[in-house]
Amino acid sequence: MSISVCIATYNGALFIERQLSSILIQLSVDDEVIISDDNSVDSTCQIINSLQDPRIRLLKNTHKSGPVGNFENALRTALGNIIFLADQDDEWLPGKVNETIALLEDYDLVLSDCQVVDKKGKLIYESFFHYRNSKPGFWRNLYKNSYNGCCMAFRRDVLDYALPFPSAIHMHDWWIGLLVEAKGRTYFYNKPLINYTRHGSNASPTSEEGYSFQVKIVNRLLLFVSVAKRLWG
Question: What residue stretches are annotated with the Glycosyltransferase 2-like domain (predicted)?
């Protein structure tokens, strides 16, 4: 069973080597790490290339700019039977791959818990699930999303109905999570498997802070309509 780890990068030089080291040590020689870079202007690509690991495929984002398009660019080329999503600035904890794969024998998508840390590695929250009151369920997660892409892994056949991403959605991980809630089997694994780094410049926020109430409502309506069209339209 082969694995594809899909990462979207943009000016991630500060943390990308640490993150890749934590990932690669858990993969076999037949697995791959697909990195789609959204025209970074720092040394992100140079750091990635300096690792000279044949499992890494570095792509330039030729899709829509931003995290959603950047992740789609990576996912479109994934070859593995199991897909992991990862952010450029986190750190995988030992056992993440093996524990997740074991769970995916019975589920289509696994969302694991994570420890939230600052840029120096200082613990902020021991459990994102506890902080967010995370639980499965379509309507619950449409109302209050817990689907952090960096904590997600899923079977390849999820891509058959998740791609292409609709232009109306603003979060790729929320989209994938809701689709599998509606169509497949999800599992919330109550064990932190990554250090989720919050440093103030993250491309994907942990919540919708900064959005107006009206925008939040519109985002949910667009997501719901997009899911309905994809699955039942």
Answer: 4-159
